[in-house]
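Title: Prediction job returns without error message
Component: structure pipeline
Severity: low
Priority: P3
Assignee: unassigned

Description:
Job completed but the reporter wants confirmation the result is attached to the right record. Sequence as submitted:
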Amino acid sequence: MTAQEVRLCGLLLREHFGEVVEKVGTHLVKNGAQNLRTIIHETGLSLDLIKKSLCVLVQHGVCVFRSGRRGPGSPTEYRTCPDLILRILRYPRYIYTAKTLYGDTGELIIEELLQRGHMTMSGTVKTVADRLTQNMEEGRSMDYNEVTSAFSKLVETHFLQRCPPMAAAAAKTDTATPATPATPGTPAAPVSTTLPTPESFPDCYKVPHVTLIGRGKRQLSTEDGEDQRNAKRPKLDTENHGDEGIYWQVNFERFHLHFRDQAIIGAVANKLDQTSSEIVRTMLRMSEVTTLPTATCTKPLSANEIFKSLPATYNIPRPILDQYLTLLVDDPMEFVGKAGESGGGMYVVNLNRALANLARATLESVVQERFGSRSARIFRLLLRKRHLEQKQVEDFAMIPAKEAKDMLYTLLSQNLVQLQEIPKTPDYAPSRTFYLYTVNQLPTARMLLQNSFKTVANLIERRLFESSNSKRLLEKSQRIEAILASLQASGAEPEQLTEVEEMITAPEKQQLESLRLHINKLDSAENQVDETIFLLESYVNSTATSTS
């Protein structure tokens, strides 16, 4: 973990769970696995606060616990998962994707599970049905069966998965350490640090038979303070629905595969046309179940299979499809490759090559935005030619010598370009040494990834600072909005509503509007930087899996 990642983890924990949870979580991120006594001693917090903080972290899946490193019987140790903490940044994107694919019901299911960590299917269905009923017209309500159907679709497409059962997870952990007692002077067997994944357990994507009959209930309007207190209390459900003890969580990896596929489809549409992107979309959809998440390319598909699976709206004749496939194979980006000649030709989508090209385009875009189009031309030239001397850069880029020299040294100072010395003699004399400029894409992508983490952390800090400066005004606005909502629900006169609205003065309204506009811009910037983080992370991870 780098310092920027630790800082971003702390800010995300503080924003979503408060300062106490942030202190415990950041301490575990920095120091690794620790037992309860050590955490109390080093953080200085009370036992009760630390227990509650650990419960929050475990509930949301960002903290795991197991027997200590000294073997069975040693104190339980707690360890955070920094990658899962950083995924909090992507929560809005998960929710928006669920809304796009499965409508408002899918959106609320994902939102509830992200907000609460994990829930049973029956509890999720009831909560979502109640929320949807609350926003419907008077006299209408949401049927539990409709929400259950949407939940089942999310499970079938692997966007939701069962949480690993605690007993099974403990058994898997215990089998990693032998049960024989350690003799004096003999070090204890090391505890396996690999966590059991949900996919390693049977019935990970099996929907239980839930007996839920009824419709969502509309919440009765009460005083605002009472509503807030009731919302914080756990709702006790004494009915049995057949899924007791079976908890569900969001499958982040499945969402990431969807984001990766959408990025590839969008790149093909920008480079070629909409029909080419639809062909690639069809290939990815056909192979999404059979292709492993770490695979370098999809399973081979014949041209006949692709032709039969194309959407009905794309009425493409078979010869035209063959021409499009040939065009995709011959394209320098190499998103699609040919794997054989049977069945009219076997084709694959080169996933790792596509991610490398997307990361390369991101690097080029960053250089162009920061240093201008001429520097981007030099950077693009070095990516293509690999190694060039300064005179060659000037000639190929068609840039005057003085300007090219300044641009190269600027890129070199920012670690975007590297200088490699190749001596003719062992003494490294400058007159007998070749100085070659080059771009190492992977280290440059890693550096840009760290800069992106720093940027997001700065954006979050700025947003929190803006909100804290206008805290009194925001609280006043929320109170007035709550009063207006309760008056409208009780059928108040228009004069009463106008009188309440006038409690906020014109300058305060202007200040509120300016603040909301500023915060919306910061939120939008966070989401845009997160897209860059996702692309670069996917590229770095793909290179790690392909070399291992």
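Comment from assignee: result matches the submitted record. Confidence is low (pLDDT under 50) at residues 167-193, 222-234.
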